[in-house]
Design goal:
The chain is mainly alpha-helical. It contains five helices and two strands. The chain has helices spanning 8-19, 38-41, 68-77, 89-103, 114-132, and strands at 24-25, 30-31.
Length: 133
Amino acid sequence: MNKFFVPNEVYEDRIAICKSCVYYKKLLGNCSICKCFMKVKARIAPMACPQKYWDKTTEVETPDDLPQEIIDEILDMWKDLKTGRAKDVAAKKRMIETYNTIYMTNYTPGTNCGSCISTCYDGIKKLYNKYTE
C-alpha cells in the first residue's frame, strides 16, 4: 500500500483550498486544469497544485488502512464498474487513477490494454469487497 499519504490536517487544508478555487469542478470534485480527482490528489504527499495554491510536502504518515476519502472513492466508483466493465471512459480513467494512487503504479489512464485494466479492476474489486464486508 502507498505510504505517502499526508496527515489529516494537511489534507483538510489542501481540500479546502481546492474547494474555494475557481478551477474546482464541484460536480465531479476534479480540477479543470490538471483533471485530477482532488479528494485523491490532495491526500498524496508528493502531489502539488498546478496553480501552486498548495505544494508537495514531505510530511507523510504511514496509514494502517486507507484514508476514508479513498475508501469513499472506491465505494462510489463501484457502481460504474460492478458489471466487470467500466461504464464509460471516465469511469475507466477514474478506476486506473485511483488504483495508481493506492498501489503506487503508473498505468496510463487512457490505456486499452486488457491486462492493465484487468489488474486495476481486480485491485479495486478486492478493496471494494474488503470495505463492504
